[in-house]
Amino acid sequence: MFIIFMIGCLVSSTYALDGADVVLSCSFVEEGGGMMGGMGGGGLFSRTPATLVLRDLPVDPDSDSALDSVTPFDPPEKPSADDLIFEVKGSSVEIPDADTLLHADCNEQEVNCEISHYIPRGSDPDAPPSHFIGSLQVEGGGISLTMVLQVLTNEEAASETLPLIQSKLELPLSQSGTLLTEVVFVVFSRSPSLSTPLGGDAQLDCGFRQRNSSHVGGLGLEWRLQHRGSGRKVLEMTKVEEGEEAGAGPTVSAGRDGASVDPALAVEEGNVSMSLTKLKVVDEGTYICTVTSGMFQTQQIVQLHIDQPPIVSLSEEMVVFQDEPAQRLSCHCKSYYPLDVQVEWLSLSSSEAEPIEISDGASLSSHRQHSDGTYSVTAQLTLRLSAHPPGTTVTCRVAHQALSAEVDVSTTVRLAPETDDNLYAIIVSLLVVIVGTVFFYQVMGGTN
Ligand SMILES: *[C@@H]1O[C@H](CO)[C@@H](O)[C@H](O)[C@H]1NC(C)=O
Ligand SMILES: *[C@@H]1O[C@H](CO)[C@@H](O)[C@H](O)[C@H]1NC(C)=O
């Protein structure tokens, strides 16, 4: 029966009377893979296939017909104690952007889903599991959610048949073989990954939703930056108790100039997004938004990438050949980030229809890093008149992830005009005559 959830679409949904159901294939993750065939070693995680069913998500009645074609959630015909089906009943806590989960098409947008045991702050870790944490990420830049699920006490338990007990969790299942839960706390980000140019501003999106009753114990926020193995606190908002006077509201302390959170938005709307101004390369990394509310604390990750396109220029506006057989041409790519840049040389002579790539005589300098963290590189090309006759257009083409399209800079190969040549010859002969004459008189004078 369980196989049905695992194959085919990762996401399926159906209209119920007052909303739609979303069925997600998930992994139930546990620490210590001791049971996994003796692979040994501590600290491993074991994964068990699981299903998350979000019931009765509100549907926008005007939404498109794509939802019509999907199959409904059917509870297993014969409930099994080995199935791990987490069923989330219409909760008092709103699941933000639930419709994006409904629309995440099974072929184009996957939803990563992991569920694990959650121990609320201050509760007994050895007590039977009462909470789980589910993290969902819509791939390709969609919403990312971390939700705390609280196990509902089974009302059906009082019925004549004894409830099935889930074999792994040792918790009673509903009549249809699912573990009934309710969302009590959600931390989410609508843009878990963003790119910004140097010097720009960014808003790292993070928000939370909670049950009214979970205010007790106060609200706290911390933003940390984790990059290349080191971490630092970027911002902290002190805990604020519900009912505190507005004047005595939360204080925000920032560990970086230009980092800010609006405390009023945080308290009133659950919006703990952090603004950063004048971004530098050192601001790049993984930001962790940790929201603490009463007994719950969870996190959301926002990736910030710095994306700065190169400034591209050529050493010569025009390549003019005199008598020399070869000339050097340089293409400078300045102040870009990140490091990866592709430079290629193309030539288009009057006899060709399409530009062709030049590989002979091309070389790349090593990357230089500036104090602001950006990079520069110079590509060099040795041009030979024999290979690139006058009239040939030589192009340096640069590709970089911060550029929406490749950048081309071009120059043309020319021969020095004849007249200049004659003038040059005259000047040279005149010089020879003058120098020769002076030398002759000096020699003659010396012998006298
Ligand atoms: C927070 O507020 C900003 C500005 O109004 C908005 O752009 C953003 O979407 C909000 N984020 C959340 C998580 O509510
Ligand atoms: C939560 O509190 C608000 C006002 O404080 C109230 O309007 C709302 O009905 C409450 N919701 C629940 C689920 O208790």
Automatic annotation (TrEMBL):
Tell me yes or no: is Transmembrane among this UniProt entry's keywords: yes
Listed A to Z, the keywords are:
Immunoglobulin domain, Membrane, Signal, Transmembrane, Transmembrane helix
Write the signal peptide boundaries.
1-16
**Listed GO biological process terms:** antigen processing and presentation of endogenous peptide antigen via MHC class I
Annotated PROSITE patterns: IG_LIKE (PS50835)
- Tell me which SMART domains the record gives: IG, IGc1
- Would you tell me the Gene Ontology cellular component terms? membrane
Transmembrane intervals: 423-444
Residue intervals of the Ig-like domain: 309-410
One Pfam match, given by its short name, reads V-set
Name of the protein this chain belongs to: Ig-like domain-containing protein
Natural source organism = Alosa alosa (allis shad)
